[in-house]
Amino acid sequence: MALTAEDILKQLKNREFAPVYFLQGDEPYYIDLLSDYIEQHALNEMEKGFNQVVMYGKDTDVPTVLLQAKRYPMMSDRQVVIVKEAQNLPNLEADPEKDPAAKQLDAYLNNPLPSTILVFCHKHKSVDGRKRLGKLLGKKAVFLTTKKLYDNQVPAWITQFIKTKNLLATPQAVMMLAEFIGSDLSRLANEIEKLAINLKPGQTIDERMVQDNIGISKEYNIFELQNALVRQDILKANRILNYFESNPKDNPLIPNLVLLFSFFSKLMTLHLLPQITEQTVAKELGNRGFLAKEYLQALRAYPYWRVLQIIGFIHQADLQSKGIEGGAMSDAAILKELVFKMLHQVPVLQKAV
Fold first, then answer.
1. Cβ 7 vs Cβ 103: under 8 Å
2. From residue 84, how far is each of 59, 183, 190, 224 by CA, in Å?
3. pTM for the full predicted model
């Protein structure tokens, strides 16, 4: 049966356990969330010693997993068998007509031991639901496939996750978390948990808290550099670049390039809107109206042809960071050159475009 992660977690909290869970996909956060809950809560501490086994796909095989799953619990109503890194299990998707292990797995899935909770954690890849094993899992197991969030879905996820902590957040704080951390849900959850430790229910996470607790300098960070680029404030941009050069560990090049690429990619999308107004821009940004004015200013500062050129500059800077172009330039020198091009360079084909 196909359920959402939220559905499965609700069942687990109600102590409604299924004999087999197959948790797979590109987003490891939900796989870890559900398997950790089962590991921590399905058995009490006394029962775990004899009745809980954690295995790793690269160190075991299907017959060994099934041997553990077929055991009966000792002094408990159930036992738990968790297979982490199940994507490394040899011959997991083999043909049961040719592979005895695959045939054993099919037989167990069709008739699992009710007193066993067998959990497969199959990360970063998926069993094809249209093929034999996928179809069988869909019928006989709790079968979850997780997908990475798109960038425009991340702010809503952050807002909802913060609500589960009985907290609120300003739109600016949500934006900073989304832009600085990206779509890594595990890291986002961890950073929000750290923020929540010192807050009382009902309190609001603001941008100051994010700056103070997630290593973002208030005056010298990638967001302020982005603002300086939008306003074409050369003096402020150079001050931030000098700060980055003095604090390289806190300001690595690649994440900064990713954030700049994300910003200018959004500008390119906005330039293609049939009508560019504060309302249409806000809607395209995921109903984040507080960002619309900044993006409107950026659209005026950087016409479409200029945005395309800057995206090319960012790509070139990425190649330089890998040593493919530019020789042995330092990260600071690469970023300084990039910002200079963003603020100063005029393309030869401006009139033709």
1. no
2. 10, 23, 21, 41
3. 0.69
pLDDT-based confidence at residue 273 (cuts at 50, 70, 90): very high
Amino acid at 323: G
**Residue 345 contacts residue 310 (beta carbons within 8 Å):** no
Q: What is the rounded distance in angstroms from the CA atom of residue 303 to the CA atom of residue 288?
A: 22
Place of tokens 């987003």: 27
Kindly state the tokens that stand for 264.
């200018």
Closest by CA position to 232, among listed 350, 348, 342: 342
Count, in order, helices (H) and strands (E) of the chain.
17, 7
Query: Alpha-carbon torsion 72, 77, 78, 79, what sign?
Result: negative
Q: Which two tokens stand for residue 34?
A: 């559900």
- Report the amino acid identity of residue 284: E
Q: Cα–Cα distance between 248 and 214 in angstroms, integer?
A: 16
Rounded CA-CA distance 101/161 in Å is 41
Q: Which pair of tokens denotes residue 110?
A: 């069709």
Q: From CA 187, how far away is CA 161, in angstroms rounded? A: 12
**DSSP-assigned beta bridge partners for residue 338:** none
Q: Per-residue pLDDT for 340 more than 90?
A: yes
pLDDT tens for 39-75 read 999 999 999 999 999 999 999 999 999 999 999 999 9
